[in-house]
Amino acid sequence: MRLKVQVKNILAKQGTTAPLLLFVVFILLGFVAYPNLHLLQQSFFQDTQFTFSNYLSFFDTTNNSNLEALWGSIYISTLTVFFSALVGVPLAYLFTHYDFPGKSIFASLAVLPIVMPPLVGVLAFLFLFGESGILPRAIQVIFDLETIPFSIGGITAILVVHTYSFYVYFYLFASNFYNDLDASVLEAAQNLGAGTGFTLQKIIFPMMMPALSGAALLVFMAAMASFSAPFIFANTTRILSLEIYQTKLNGNLDLAVTQSVILAGFSIIFLILLRIYSGRKRYIGGSKGVKIKTKVIQNGITRWFISTLGIIAVILLILPHLTVILISFVENGTWTWQMLPPSYTLDNYVGLFEDPKIVEPITNSLKMASYATLGNLIFGITAAYLLIRKTFPGKKIIEALIMLPWAIPGTVLAIGLVVAFNMKNIFTLGTILVGTFWILPIAYFIRNLPLVFRSTYAALESFEPAQEEAARNLGAGWLFAFRKVILPAIAPAILSGALLAFVLALGEFVSSILLYNYYNRPISLEIISQLRVFNLGSAAAYSVFLIIIIGLVVIISNRFLGKRTGQVVV
After folding, report:
1. How is the chain split into domains, by residue range?
2. Which long-range contacts (CB under 8 A, 24 or more apart) does 421-424 make?
3. Minimal CA–CA distance to 239: which of 120, 66, 118?
4. Three-state SS for 330?
5. Which residue, among 335, 354, 330, 313, has the nearest Cα to 543 in the 3D structure?
6. Which are the contacts of 455, defined by CB distance < 8 A and separation ≥ 6?
């Protein structure tokens, strides 16, 4: 009774925005808190009986397959962070400190992997470097070898794909740091006699720690949640995200739930530890606003060497994209043992627009991504406005719940929805969602909750409240003031988050494979289906379609949003 009175008082203080607060709380309780709490609860039950047997089974040393999978996920994620940093940070240093022929082109292409959906990137590397890949076969033919000289698989293949896909995080974070670094700090260190090594160790690295830890956090979480690369390349290597999928397929939902809880738990623990570490390592100093001047490389040999490296880097960056494009013209079923496909056709693309069965996954993905993004827009704008402009108890909890889906792997999110929404409840308005068309848009919506929210929140933080107050003082209601004063100013940030949410939903594979049915199958599932029947051309044509859509979104972001904000949006 006392809690009920407190809730009424809180809502009364919100006035006309009380329904918005109720809407935000309802969404977070029903689609974030409830599935995850239900998942945690379910992990302690077996045949409706409370038990610890699921956890005892997981940590059973006599059958350590689950422990191997957990170690495999942590091991691969840690190495992914290391190799991604090894590529991304030096690349950012090179492009921000030196000027050489082709630099602008190389810098633009450095973010090319971001337009490659995870599943499509994995397929590109399979076509390129797999046992029947183009490059191994080409070397075999050129040098007249009896067997192919190499092929990638297992942990090596996963790390190669992860490094290619995730180094961009380190590159972007490090580039922003170098661009904002005050040259006067480095000059002061040099004037005091500090050498290059001392400056790196004692000045640059500590100041760079927040950027590095932020990139490391994103990469580690992405690697822990990774499903596409293990799904194609894992072979006998056990990865926990893949183990969850296989356990569910085998019908052992109780163990799959427990595996999901443990995977989510380790991801969140890493998130907390890295937050604590990066918080202790923050350095704040005065700045004169002196930008670092790029050095023009004058030495002919050095310029030639760097240009050569740049050309090689460009080839490596665009090769996966070119490979997928090439395969998309292959006639289905014709490419087997040959170095290059022997037969080409336009039918794979014609079918994308004419054959109803082929078009259906495209329309499904476009509709489901649009519905999910519309939900992200409504929720994200509402939640950001309330958290910035209003005062009420529990703001930190609400913000934490909004960001939680970003810390939970897609397999865990999907299992949570299976457990929570395979029965009627108040949050689903008395319907069973599992097995329906709407379960996938809801999964995409939950997964991308933080995107529009964070972009809107950041824009509102920098928006001067006095402008809204002036409109209110002139008699405008909060809705009119928001629509006419605030919304036009923060529209670029909102659109940036919405475009990213749409792109991620369009290419979503991890949660889709656990939740889809035949009638709402998305593009990503159709790609896998085409591969299983050896229709490589059709699978690649779907992949090219995804790349084109994502590429268009990136171009819109950079051209439209970049002009309005003065920044490059990636």
Report:
1. 65-327
2. 421/35
3. 66
4. strand
5. 330
6. 380, 493, 494, 496, 497, 500
> Would you state the pLDDT for residue 230?
92
Assign residue 534 a region: left if phi > 0, alpha if psi is -120 to 50, beta otherwise? left
Q: How many CB atoms lie within 10 A of CB 496?
A: 25
Cβ neighbours for 262, distance < 8 A, ≥ 6 positions apart: 58, 70, 240
SS3 of residue 181 by DSSP = coil
pLDDT given at position 188: 64
Task: Return the structure tokens found at 167.
Answer: 């180094």
Let me know how many helices (H) and strands (E) the chain has, helices first. Answer: 29, 4
3-class SS at 322?
helix
Nearest-CA neighbor of 181 among 206, 215, 153, 150? 206
Q: What is the pLDDT of residue 199?
A: 62
Model pLDDT for residues 473-486, shown as the tens digit of each residue: 555 556 666 666 67
pLDDT at 456: 83
DSSP state of 431: -
Judged by average pLDDT, the poorest of 4-8, 76-80, 184-188, 474-478 is 4-8
DSSP 522-569: -HHHHHHHHHHTT-HHHHHHHHHHHHHHHHHHHHHIIIIIHHHHSS--
Percent of the chain, pLDDT > 90?
20
- Report the pLDDT value the prediction gives residue 216, as an integer from 0 to 100: 85
For the chain, the farthest-separated pair of C-alpha atoms sits apart, in whole angstroms, at 83
Distance CA 247, CA 254 (A): 9
- Give the C-alpha separation, 175 to 153, whole Å: 32
pLDDT at 15: 55
Fold of 65-327: MetI-like fold (1.10.3720)
* Maximum mean pLDDT: which of 51-55, 285-289, 496-500: 51-55
Residue given tokens 């191994």 in the structure block: 136
